[in-house]
Structure formats: C-alpha cells, structure tokens
Design a protein that fits this description.
Elements (H helix, E strand, L loop, with lengths): L20 H7 L14 E9 L3 H21 L9 E2 L2 E2 L4 E2 L2 E4 L4 E3 L2 H14 L6 E13 L6 E7 L1 H16 L19 E7 L7 E3 L3 E5 L1 E6 L2 E4 L3 H5 L9
Antiparallel strand pairs: 1-5, 1-6, 1-12, 2-9, 3-4, 7-8, 7-10, 7-11, 8-9, 12-13
Length: 247
C-alpha cells in the first residue's frame, strides 16, 4: 500500500502556504498604503540653570526652614500642610540644580517649529552666561498656574531682573500664538524667581525678608521633551581661544 510519503530526494515539492494578506501589509518593507499623517506637538521651557554646591544647598535649606517657621507662626495652615523642599534629590542623595524660569511651557505644532524657535533665540539671545544672579532676600509664596499649590520662591533682586528682562521679552515676543491650556502664556519679568519648595494650600499669601543670596547661573537651557540642552550663544561660538606665545 502506497502511503504517499515523500522525501527530500523527490523532485516534486509542495509550495508553502502563503501568509495572510494582512500579515504582508504589516511587515512589508514597501508600504502598500500611507497611514494618515498627524503632526505631533512639541513642548519646551526656557530657563537659567543654576548648579548648587553642598554649602549653597545648606544655606538655602536653612532659609527654607526659617521661612516655614515664620509662615507657621503668622498664618493659619491646614493640619496636613507641610513644607515640601525641592532642593535635594533623594535618589542620588545630592543637591538638585535650581532654575530661574524665563518662560512658561511653550507648545509648538511640530519639531520644525520648535527648532526654528530655538535657532531664533540662539541668534538673538542678549544674555551671556555664566552669570551671577542675585536674590533680594525676599522669599514669597507664588501660586501655580492651576492654583493647586504655592511655590516657595526666592525673588531676584532689581539688578538681576534688569539683566534678565530683555531675554524674557524676546521670548514673550515669539511665544506661539495659540494658547494651549496653561501653555503659551507670556512670562512676567517682575515674577522672576527660583523655587526652593512647595506648599499645598490654596489662597495663601505670605512673604518674609531674610538673607540676600548670590548664585552663579551656568547656562540658558531649553527643555525639549526629556532632553535639556544649553542654548548656544552667538558670541561664544565666534570667540577664539587666545594663543600662548612662546617665551
């Protein structure tokens, strides 16, 4: 009885079954149709980057505690309210870098619009870093845009405000036209500050005058998603390092 077994030596071979057509569409190197293309918005935030030494962290931690003590004595706080410092990274056990916001979050239609904005800032940026920034000694509660919490803010002094104003105004002039929730809002130069803590209680107003502080800002930064990159300064790109003459 012939059971119709075949072997590799036989000349007639069976063709393999073709995969489903949907499988071919999914893995084809040449697309059989174009998917509907949608632009993806991009968000950025412009700020001054201020690294902290251990000594500077200790000073700011002390000021935050003094502010909290005065606030607790003079204001009625909810029982659950505490000062949440933003100065220390528990994961790395190192002081966090601080920043002075020069803009709110800015939303752009796509990567190209964001790149054009960054290029424009780099071409016209009036601010040069590194830069010494002074804080007046006033620590004030500033509400978040959604009013859900208060930032414990070191307010910059008048000299620093004057240094930063033209940069903030440049950014404000080129803020994308369409407001996107709390994004694409022009920043008020009179509110330039550095956050050192948060308090989660609404409708709370308080300020205290403590010790003036001076810190060094290393660079102007732009966040692009999770990436944070320094803005290239036009003059800095054109500068040449001095050559040493042989003696």
């Amino acid at each position: 009885m012939d059971l119709q077994y075949s072997s590799d030596s036989e000349s007639d071979t069976q063709e393999p079954l073709k995969p489903p057509e949907s499988f071919l569409f999914k893995y084809s190197e040449t697309p059989v149709f174009r998917r509907k293309e949608t632009s993806t918005k991009r968000t950025s935030h412009i700020y001054l980057h201020i690294p902290l030494s251990d000594e500077q962290y200790a000073l700011l931690h002390s000021l935050a505690q003094k502010f909290w003590d005065e606030l607790s004595q003079r204001c009625v706080l909810n029982e659950s309210v505490t000062l949440q410092e933003t100065l220390f990274d528990e994961l790395t056990e190192t002081p966090k870098s601080l920043h002075i916001s020069l803009s709110y979050n800015l939303t752009f239609e796509d990567d190209q619009k964001l790149r054009e904005f960054i290029a424009l800032l780099e071409e016209n940026l009036p601010l040069r870093t590194p830069l010494m920034v002074g804080f007046s000694g006033e620590i004030r509660l500033l509400p978040s845009l959604d009013k859900s919490k208060q930032f414990v803010a070191l307010i910059v002094d008048q000299e620093t405000r004057n240094k930063l104003r033209s940069t903030v105004e440049l950014i404000n002039h080129h803020v994308p036209g369409n407001r996107d929730g709390d994004n694409n809002i022009r920043y008020d130069p009179d509110l330039l500050h550095c956050t050192i803590g948060e308090i989660h209680q609404k409708d709370l107003q308080f300020s205290a005058h403590l010790q003036p502080v001076t810190l060094a800002a290393a660079s102007v930064m732009a966040s692009q998603g999770r990436r944070k990159t320094p803005l290239h300064q036009k003059e800095a790109r054109g500068e040449k390092k001095p050559t040493q003459q042989a003696t």
